[in-house]
Amino acid sequence: MGLRDLLKKKQGIDAGDGPDPATVQRLNAPEFTFVRSDTYTEEVIHPPGGPAGADNDDASSYLTVDSRTGKDKSRLSLDVFRSTGHARTRSPSVSSSKSTGAHKRLSQRLYLSRSPVGSDNVPANLPEIVTPADPEEDKEGQELQWEKRATMLARENEKNRTRPPTPVQDTVQELAHMHLGDGSSDDAPPNWPFPGSPGPPAAPTKGVVSSKEIDQNIQEAIRLHEEGDLEQSTALFGRLADPKGANNPLSQVLYGLALRHGWGCKPDAAAAVNYLSAAASNAATIEQLALQAGLKKGGAAKGELVLAIFELANCFRHGWGIPKDPIAAKQYYETAANLGDTDAMNEVAWCYLEGFGTKKNKYESAKYYRLAEKNGNKIIGNTWIWKEKYNPGNGKK
């Protein structure tokens, strides 16, 4: 019986008609609202009969959903660099989308679907990670293995991409004159990397992580961005990212994100992938030198490498500027997760949970969700991960 019929019966009772015991019991029953939610969405689940006003008789026999929220959560600012320098809001996530299980194939319902075979974006000789019986036993050794994997992924990805061209924008020249003028402006940091700046910039070196001058320029670009001057901020990031100029990996990541989302420029997802790939390759070169020198932990470019790997994973996952590749997305997420990126921990956990680019494995999923929560990036509604059966050692990999 729908709400409309219940109300009619209630009006009849109030008017003095004989009460129907079943109706009275239903009218006096406590009211419950069932809500299904995750980080970005909140949905009210209605019992059979649907919400008030539903005219579809066929739908009245099923649960119905009324979505309250669920807005796109695209990255809109440079929050990526506040506090820790690499904490950021999550990109739009497939994991927050609603499942349409009623239309799944029979093989999917019975978990008989074949796992992916391979990916052109993942090296065929990618080594397996050797994990000791006690994960706490050799953390540095494990990090060394994941860093080697990150450098291999970055180099393989670079082979499949073209080197990004030198950014050419009229706003670059305008910004140069605005900040530099005749070279005497007090606001211009030393060796500002624009045409007309006092003295020629230093010769570009592949994989230059940073310098005092580059750091000052990056901070200025971030300031411009946060003040809403996206066009000038992006132009400056473009100059710092120029492979024939500063060739700075962090700026290449930032310029790639600007191109992806259209921050002060025309969106160009394909070019964004090229700059993110260049950032990963440059940072991997620096890290490889550190590993060859005998370091077990990341060198000066670890943050840039992890950030680029994570953003490339998003590209492979969503098809931003590149064909979708679930296998590559999962491998990139897992690599970034094991190098400390908490967003990547949640994303690879979702990959294992849903079988995206890998076989379904709730034990591995729970492991990464727990790791993310331990590091301060909790996902609402993940209480299932703490069930005893998902404790380490209980599951089969």
Automatic annotation (TrEMBL):
Biased composition (Pro residues): 190-203
GO biological process: negative regulation of G2/M transition of mitotic cell cycle
GO-annotated cellular components: cell division site
SMART domains attached to this UniProt entry: SEL1 (SM00671)
Organism: Lasiosphaeris hirsuta
Residue span of region Disordered: 1-143, 179-212
Biased composition (Basic and acidic residues): 1-12
Record protein name field: Protein DSF2
